[in-house]
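Supplementary Note 3. Input sequence used for the single-chain structure prediction.
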Amino acid sequence: MTVRHAVLTAAGVAVLCLGIYLFLEVRASPATAEVPAKRATATRTEESTPTSSDEGEARPAPRREARIPQRNVAASGTADTPPPQAPADSTDARLVNLDKDGTMAEANKAYDRGDFDEAQVIAEKVLKDDPKNVRMLRILVSSACIQGDSVAAQKHYLQLPTIDREQMRTRCGRYGVSFNEQ
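The predicted structure, written as discrete structure tokens, is reproduced below.
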């Protein structure tokens, strides 16, 4: 055995030992995410799953309390006067938007679980009130492509914006559906 072989063997064993050491160190101390102290979107108290300490006993993670939003004095007049009331029709519009958001979520869930017929029916309901809703148009095009209905896919494809058309062209190409730019 030459000196070169002995050095290479020793270096290989050293690298192997170092790799094992690093692997064990990484497994022993899991990474923790750094969360900024101030979060604008925190609206409720969050609980985490219990973590284990070095002694092996479970301990609960610290709880973060929800922050109460500060009142905007400029928008509401003064701190002593109540904010102006919104007109009744805007409340109705918010309820309609909530209903529409829930309906769109139902369409997404149906699509995600593979129930493409239901996803299409729900998406078409939304499109009756909002014919340019890109999210629902994408569900219709994608569902039609998966089902091999190139006529329905083409009909809704032409209503999509250019960037969405490119994405749908790629997705539907996987299912053998191609589009005409008319």
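Residues 39-56, 68-79 have pLDDT under 50 and may be disordered. The chain has seven helices and two strands.
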